Amino acid sequence: MPRNRYSHGGLARNGSVTGHDRDRLVLSAVVFTVLFGQVLLYPGVPELVAALGATPAEWTGGVDEVLDAGMWFLTAEFVGFVLCAGLWGALSDATGRRTSLIVLGAVLGATGYLVLALTGTYWSLSYGWILAIRFVQGGATIGAFSLAITTLMDLGGGHGRNMGAAGLAIGFGTALGAPLGGQLAALGALVPLYVAGAVLLVAGLLATLAADRTSGPSRRVRDAVRGIRAQPVLLAPFAFGFVDRLTAGFFALVGTVYFRSTFGLDAAATGLLLGAFFVPFALLQYPLGRLSDAIGRVLPVAVGSLCYGVAVAGVYYAPTPAWSAVVMVTVGVLGALVAPATMALVTDLAAEQRRGVAMGGFNVFGSLGFLAGIVGGATVAARHSFELAFLAVGGAEVLIAVVAVPLLLRLDVPVLAWRRTGGP
């Protein structure tokens, strides 16, 4: 019986590991390393922006000032993500090359991290220049991240499986990065920057071990970009990606400041609390991604998002750090249900020669969501209250789930194709 593009695979007939398995492992390691380095900075953002000259070094809980400085520091990176993700994708589609571009993005991103660290250690620059460096670092880093996931899209073995592997790497990168970042920040505000630069260099080295499996180059970058316009159905997973990353951006800044100002936690304890979300988020990505291959994308994406939004809002009402950890675990489980199925839906719908642009577009929307979570969440929290901010972010996730269900029902093709062809 012929295989279909949603079926599983990866082992040779004699049970040996194939090149696809090897590349899946390598590329997942690249995704893990990029996210690990990125999240290292989050628990210690208040001290980091102080060390870079944005706020007084003796910060003891001035919430509004820290929210503002931290907001711009995180925003600068994600503006780079937004403006450059699609360009990296279009370039990879146009040239038919991915791994060499992953290496380039990783090396440039590592350089950005290290320049920031050296600036904070040896030089004195205005905060505007710090943000400019941060923007360039973000624009480079998104190339390594987005193209590593795109190269996973090029592999056989089931889209849910491949995106589950990506989600597993994302989850473990953030799960380990958050608590370790808090510990590193306790050693010194700039230590996470040095470590992030080093691990991104490792990501570039790992990328050299993976093979390019594109179907061939497009004629021009402009042609690759135009191709995305012919597939408006991609707006469905893009919208979910936007809202899902909105919650991530919200917790990266507002959640961090909320936990520290409300419960009096230090950077290390805050990192552990964020880890309560990221550990189950990591552990369940791969099995739940494979589950979406079997049952389709509607239940994981729509129902998962609905419950996820309720859980996010519920974090505010946890009365103690211990209860907050319990709710954060719940958020992590539900996030693991949604994330790989959403990325797999992008793979299901994207034309084979335009996967770089499709995943770049997904990351553009995701980065815009992250920005909205940072800027919108910080603005609402500073001008109104943390409670309203949590309710707004959780409500946005619920709203998109309700609105998009009819469209998702029309798009849920993979499981139907699987059943018609009698896949394994």
The name of the CATH superfamily reads MFS general substrate transporter like domains
The CATH topology, please? Growth Hormone, Chain: A
Order of helical and strand elements: HHHHHHHHHHHHHHHH
Largest sheet geometry? none
* Envelope shape: globular
CATH architecture annotation: Up-down Bundle
- What's the CATH C level? Mainly Alpha
Average pLDDT, to the nearest integer?
Answer: 76
What is the tally of helical segments? Answer: 16
SS-based class: mainly alpha
- Rg calculated over all Cα atoms: 20 Å
Number of domains: 1
- What share of the residues does DSSP label as strand, in percent? under 5%
CA-CA gap between termini: 10 Å
The quaternary state of the protein chains shown equals: single chain
Instruction: Report low-confidence residues grouped into runs of 5 or more.
Output: 1-17, 56-61, 412-424
Q: What can you see in these coordinates?
A:
With 424 residues, this protein is mainly α. The protein has a single domain, classed as Growth Hormone, Chain: A (Up-down Bundle). It is built from 16 helices and no strands. It has helices at 19-39, 45-51, 63-95, 99-122, 127-153, 159-187, 191-207, 221-229, 235-263, 267-283, 285-295, 298-314, 321-349, 355-383, 386-411, 414-421. Helix 1 packs antiparallel against helix 7 and helix 5 crosses helix 14. The longest helix has 33 residues, at 63-95. The termini are close together. Residues 1-17, 56-61 and 412-424 have low confidence and may be disordered.
